[in-house]
Design brief:
This protein is mainly alpha-helical and 345 residues long. The protein is built from 14 helices and seven strands. It folds into two domains: 131 residues, Tyrosine recombinase, N-terminal domain (DNA polymerase, domain 1); 169 residues, Intergrase catalytic core (hpI Integrase, Chain A, Orthogonal Bundle). The strands form three sheets. The chain has a three-stranded antiparallel β-sheet, with no helix packed on it. A two-stranded antiparallel ribbon has the order 1-2. The N and C termini lie far apart (85 Å). About 3% of the residues have low confidence.
């Protein structure tokens, strides 16, 4: 038997109600994901499974490890001739994309195993492959460790100057000063804002995690001007940031709308590539450069594991040199001059 997926989304206004691929077991899993995860996770999982079953063309119970290996090989097939990525030298999909799809597939089969009524007796996605040494495990897909791309202070100033509304300024400052993700900014509700304590409650964090983060007063100044002078009166939505003009005036700002805002400001500022995630990376890098501990940085960023935060140890060379020189001076001050002279003799 074969299964050919067909994605169908049901919307209630601007709210996503369900996603189906046309198979009862897969659709049940997507319902499970939708009930416990963020909308972006839900959509990504559905698309990953759609791609997988389009390539494999089998019922879930018929999928084996050989099918998974064949899928990985197909995903690594070059999409364009003579084009490779600088970061990993690959010509197919990025290792991160393939790893995410494998995670989605593994999640489906773990769910089917727990159900016990799907005819699945094992997860076809290998947890690792045997290494050269006994007991050693390696990842199926090796993801390259790349440094975050950030904006210089000059470029940040240009981008802020190119923004046309206080709403846009508040949004950008939320990413530049609080390291919020795009989905977290768009998910902010009016009741999540604590201007008195200069804090934000993030209810739509990655993986469904919630946190409270401090934010600089500059953000609240821009936010106050937006709420007082730009946000349309009588708006019913709880979303903090809404569309300011056009037929969707007063409706929640979408991810596509925010990307359009950032891209427009980037072009007016004469900058190269700028994304919401670059603004978040810029904030976290600058916080670390100013001495913020990794544990505090992890809490601010909303990382589930501190391993995700360690990437911000790359830092600027001048900061690293300064930290080294301070430590080296302290070490040298503790050296006994007489002992040093004796060793030299």
């Amino acid at each position: 038997m074969s299964f050919v997926p067909s994605m169908r989304r049901v919307m209630d206004g601007h709210e996503l109600r369900s996603i189906t691929l046309g198979h009862p077991l897969v659709d049940a899993y997507l319902e499970f994901v939708g009930a416990r995860g963020a909308v972006n996770t839900w959509l990504a999982t559905a698309y990953d499974l759609k791609v997988f079953f389009e390539v494999v063309g089998k019922e879930p119970a018929e999928v084996g490890s050989a099918d998974v290996f064949a899928f990985v090989a197909e995903q690594r097939t070059p999409r364009q001739e003579n084009v490779v990525r600088i970061e990993d030298g690959e010509a197919g999909l990025s290792a991160r994309t393939i790893a995410r799809r494998l995670s989605s597939i593994a999640g489906l089969f773990e769910y089917l195993l727990v159900r016990g009524d799907a005819g699945v007796d094992r997860n076809p996605v290998p947890r690792g492959l045997a290494g050269r040494r006994v007991g050693q495990r390696v990842r199926m897909v090796r993801r390259p460790r790349t440094l975050p791309r950030i904006l210089s202070p000059i470029d940040v100033g240009k981008l802020l100057a190119a923004l046309r509304t206080q709403r846009d300024r508040a949004i950008v400052l939320a990413m530049l000063l609080a390291a919020l993700r795009r989905c977290e900014v768009l998910g902010l509700r009016l009741r999540d804002i604590n201007a008195g304590e200069q804090r934000l409650f993030v209810a739509s964090g990655k993986g469904g995690r919630e946190r409270i983060v401090p934010v600089s007063g500059r953000f609240f100044e821009a936010l106050g001007e937006y709420l007082a002078g730009e946000r349309p009166p009588g708006v019913l939505t709880e979303a903090c940031f809404v569309v300011l003009k056009g037929p969707r005036r007063g409706m929640p700002l979408t991810a596509a709308g925010l990307d359009e805002v950032i891209d427009g400001a980037r072009q007016r500022a004469g900058l190269g590539r700028v994304t919401c995630h670059m603004l978040r990376h810029t904030c976290l890098t600058r916080l670390r450069e100013q001495g913020m501990s990794l544990e505090a940085l992890q809490a601010q960023a909303g990382h589930a594991s501190i391993d995700s935060t360690r990437i911000y140890l790359h830092l600027a060379n001048d900061w690293l040199v300064g930290e080294y020189l301070k430590a080296a001076d302290a070490i040298e001050a503790q050296i006994d001059p007489t002992e040093t002279d004796g060793e030299a003799a």
